[in-house]
Amino acid sequence: MKRIATLLPALLITLSTFGQSGPIPERNWQLVQDYVTQQKDFSGILLLGAEGKIKINTGLGYADRSMEIPFTDSSLYTIGSITKPITATSILLLLEQGTLGLTDKLTTYFKNVPKDKQDITIHHLLTHSSGLPGAIGDDYEKLDAEKFQARAWEQPLLFTPGGGYEYSNVGYSLLGMIIEIVSGQSYSQFLQENIFQPAGMRTAGYRNNAADYRLLCHGYNPDGSDWGTSHDKQWDKEEPYWNLKANGGIIMSAMDMYHWYLALRGNTILTPELLKMQTTPYTDEGGGSFYGYGYAVDQQGDCVQHNGSNGIFKADFRWFPKTDFFLFAATNDANVRLFRLNDEIIQILKTGELPEQDHWKEISASDFPIDSNQYTADAFIHLIKSYTIEKADAFIAAHISSGMLERNGKERLQELFSMLHGDVNPDSTIRAFSSGQRFNSSYVPVMKMQT
Hints:
Helices cover 33% and strands 16% of the residues. By secondary structure, the chain is α+β, with helices and mostly antiparallel strands.
């Protein structure tokens, strides 16, 4: 599963620091409510709260268009990489029990670990500093634990353990295996008994006997076709296979995520000391963002967050502990620009002002010399502007290296391009300010994508 963050240097607004002194004015809440309900073609849920109470609970569109089932706070869907904070929390619970240590190496739990990976620790896995790659296959590939480990051990490290940052689904799947080895339970059983039930997350899990899966959302491709539900995909009985398990794909509702927020603020699951450990900024992601244990955090500790997407479903969780405010939003439509909308919502709550309209003017590509890299960039821009699977396949064939294709798989790359189409404004990469300033590469949005 993926986590995406976009940085627009020419338009950068610092959103991580909420900057409120005292309660958020009621007028600002109403502005957000009005702004969200006016969003054209939005399909999903927005849940906002403060001081432990829900302030806005708005579902729009359909969880299942063919049956006209509305999207509500009880609708169920994959939360993508928001699974990672849950996996990290499980590791910290086992730490509290004294059954593992953060400096434990892979060799403590796995056999046949190659020499270059023998110094990787649990801390490295939690903070994406292991040097392991982002992914080693498609989310729904039939890959059991033994085959997953063998493939992971074959991968060359991107850097010496502890010597860099690379967002790694592989690392979090290995953490899921460690949870099973140490606890003697399946990953899902451990989560149900130690996290979901204590937190009151009644319908959370890959499969949950308490959940009504008639509420399971269908996803919708950029062309509007039905992607299906998470349970329509190839799973290993009650859980996904290991390319997805423990790093993404957990299913829950907005109300489950509300109870997750309550558990965080009330220390229901983790002690204050462990929560502080979890939200400490360990690894620099760039752009002012750091990675803790399962969360992206800023250096000041103002915002604790994670998002996720499989290219169709998107989910976004943000908690501002100092002001006791949280946001959760999700969509089942690949075309919804969810993360940008959430940035705008935060800004409205912070300032009481609606987002300004962009003031741009078109410039001609003929003004600039073109080399082969720019042709590739141009092809990429046109792909995310008018995405289809056929165009994605053509781009992959023409511009993606065999190594990148082997590491990620065609379907994962298709999902990546689809997600960018749904959430990144490609027009911003080919326009300049209306002030007439000449194009400069420093004004092109820098996209940080973890796959």
